[in-house]
Amino acid sequence: QVQLVISGGGLVQAGGSLRLSCVASGGTLSTYAVGWFRQAPGKEREFVATISRSGGGKEYADSVKGRFAISRDNAKNMVYLQMNSLRPEDTALYYCAATRNVYQSSRYAYEYWGQGTQVTVSS
Q1: Which of 35, 68, 97, 114 is the most buried (most CB within 10 A)?
Q2: In which band, very low, low, confident or very high, does the pLDDT at 101 lie, cut at 50, 70 and 90?
Q3: Are 24 and 75 contacting, i.e. CB atoms less than 8 angstroms apart?
Q4: How many other β-carbons are positioned within 10 Å of the β-carbon of residue 44?
Q5: Calpha distance 109→77 (Å, rounded)
Q6: Three-state SS string across the chain, please?
Q7: What is the CB neighbour count within 10 angstroms for residue 76?
Q8: What values do phi and psi take at 40, rounded to 5?
Q9: What is the pLDDT of residues 41-76, one digit of tens each?
């Protein structure tokens, strides 16, 4: 069973940037597609971005397209989410998740989840 640890959250002003990192232990991350999800208070957990095992396939939610970028470094067992041009509506608890299946936007397809990190964007 792979275990995921997320870091990089924090408080930023609107228009600023953050880089989230997700590192895996107990498994080889290159055997998993990885997704990023977020959940704001009172809302369902929603898809943000996902990346295939090799990094050749990527998908983004429309709300973050052009602003966020997902990448991975399998040699380091890590996946990243670079978040630029942040908006107050990006404020949420962010999660990384892994699946042995094909990369996809459905949160139900992901078997393993990190603990989450808070991202707060002030206006």
Answers
A1: 35
A2: very high
A3: no
A4: 8
A5: 21
A6: CCEEEEECCEEEECCCCEEEEEEEECCCHHHCEEEEEEECCCCCCEEEEEECCCCCCEEECCCCCCCEEEEEEHHHCEEEEEECCCCHHHCEEEEEEEECCCCCCCHHHCCEECCCEEEEEEC
A7: 12
A8: -95, 155
A9: 999 999 999 999 999 999 999 999 999 999 999 999
